[in-house]
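seq:
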Amino acid sequence: MVEHRTAVTVADRPARPGGTVRAYRALLGAQARAQTTYRASFLLDLVGNVGATVFDVVTVLVIYGVTRELGGFTLRETLVMVGLSSSAFAVADLLVGNIERLPTHVRTGLFDAVLLRPLGALPQLLLMNLPLRKVSRGLFGVGVLVVALTSAGIDWTPARVVLAVVAPLAGVVFFGSVFVATATVSFWWVDSGELANSVTYGGRDFTTYPVTVFDGWFRAAFAYGLGFAFVSYQPALALLGRADPLGLPAWAGWAAPGVALVAVAVAAAAWRTGIRHYRSTGS
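struct:
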């Protein structure tokens, strides 16, 4: 088998910054032209991709059709969590979600070609199949967040205005890190797609509802072990001015950026370890 070491040497050759930017811009431009060539089809994809986020919102509305509170939270309060979660996940899925193709790239040997180019492997993978059709999902998620924030009766202060902007961005970084970290498992186990989906999409579903709905080890693992509580639940508490029913201090509602940075560090370490572990398919 051909070791990855040779590929890394080629990929790590220094490139001029201007040339690198132009190369990435060319990749992005090629994707945009390819995906928008057939405009009618592209527009249908844009409309169709809103469905997943719409379904998340409708599910919450249906649940509140039979109850006034869920886990101790009203519909308007829960919609703030839905908005934070759906906007963050939709944007992260647009920008980073196609890293889920990594198992296929490893299996087919395409990842070898990526490593031989004098560009970063991860940016290449993200730009190779950037799903522009998911832009509509991201815009809808942001729209849900704006409507939720304006209708929740929040007592706005300068700090909460900043949090309303920073928390969704931190959520994007967090979900993006989860996408990358779970995808790196394919360097060891090429059929790990379902495992990765259980964390990424399972985490999205988890953050749609108040953490108090869940209990036991599952809540402890997802909410605080993996940090998903800091995507929507804790920031929503800070925005709404509510104390945490689970007893965490008020500052936890402002910890989303810090948790996102930790997630980035973990994802970066996992990616570097996976790259060092990778051996060429030899094809």
